[in-house]
Design a protein that fits this description.
The complex is a heterodimer of chains A (about 140) and B (about 250). Chain A has about 140 residues and is of the alpha+beta class. Chain A has helices at about 5-15, 75-80, and strands spanning about 35-45, 50-60, 65-70, 95-100, 105-115, 120. Mean pLDDT of chain A is about 80; it is low at about 1-20 and about 130-140. With about 250 residues, chain B is mainly beta. Chain B folds into two domains: about 1-30, no CATH class; about 35-215, no CATH class. Chain B has helices spanning about 5-20, 40, 75-80; strands at about 50, 105-110, 110-115, 120-125, 145-150, 155-160, 165-170, 170, 180-185, 190-200, 205-215. In chain B, the strands form two sheets. A nine-stranded mixed beta barrel of chain B has the order 1-2-3-4-5-6-9-10-11. Chain B has a two-stranded antiparallel sheet with strand order 7-8. Chain B is globular. Chain B starts with a helix and ends in a 30-residue tail after the last strand. Mean pLDDT of chain B is about 85; it is low at about 1-25. The chains are: A alpha+beta (about 140), B mainly beta (about 250). Chains A and B meet through helix 1, strand 1, strand 3 and helix 2 of A and helix 3 and strand 11 of B.
Amino acid sequence: MHLSKSAILVGVTLASTNIAQGHHSYAMFDTTKQVTIAGTVRTLEWSSPHVWLWIEVPDGKGGSDPYGFETVSPAQLQRDYGWERNILHPGDKITVVFAPLRSGKNGGELEKVTMQNGKVLATRFTNGISQPDPAGSEPKK
Amino acid sequence: MKRYPLIVLSASLLAAGAGAADAGSPASKWPGPQGDTYQSIAKLPDWSGTWAKPDRRPTKGAPESSPPFRQDYAPAALADKQKGNAEMCLPGGMPVIMGVPLGFEFLLTPGRVTILTEEGPSIRRVFTDGRSHSADPELTFNGESIGHWEGATLVVDTTAIRPKSQIFRDIKTSGQTHVIERIHLIDHDHMAVDTVVEDPVAFTMPWRYSWTYVRSKVPFQESYYCDDDRDANGEPNLQPPPASQH
């Protein structure tokens, strides 16, 4: 087989998954889409390997539905994006931008949070902030 | 970098003189403190605390983004459609483990430097007690690491890396991978891991790159456990935890 070097590199790039991306596939998230939704914090599940943010979103009928959003590890959120374990509290009104589940279920991959005071909590998936690491040793979107 | 040749030169001269006087100890091979006793460790640089590789994209075109794969190696590995180790709840192994954007700790005890990684309970034991590589080592994810100090730089030579370890992204090592790391402080808050990966089966030439770690104010975190929480369709568990968990 004769492939050019560039062909090999492209193949490498496309085929990558990698370590530290959470041990499972991210294929169920449609990262070509961005959805913005407002709700109130139910809980910030601060856990390794991945933090989950749970919010309640009004269902338009007087009730609400739970939504779950997955993001990176507590280590990365603290060191690289300035989060803290207690930065969000139950009842906080927030806006969430996320890549939705392809299944249409209530949740997705967390891209960023805007708090009521305007403060933005970024993640590695925040548009314009983070990109997959070409070295392949970092999580990829 | 400019001072390396000088250190190596002086090391050779001193080693020649020290060998006869102190045969059998680390000092017989290498000059300067080797961390063979606590008194010796006190003369080595302060690497205490947690070091983290920042979660950001390296410079475009950086050497670490383009390993010199042999044309018949990477396509073959990719054709197997190998899953990444992490997806199978296995460690990445050497050399990729040192590039994970998580925390590291370097523990110095006599004759040994132990590297802990937040990636998981994936411990690297670097023996600095003057031993040589084993004649018939067991192959492991992190390999067999023999180190020595050249002044304030820890030089680590790693062989016996299991072929299931990852050399780049999900691409596995060949079983003939040899990694040489020169780990040193750049300043008080930055550490460099200058790396050369040799693999005559996978690469056309040695692959050189350097990671920079930052001394982190965030302490060492709980391991980045394997959490295979997807169902058979790949869907995550969307059942919220009890509200009181926070």
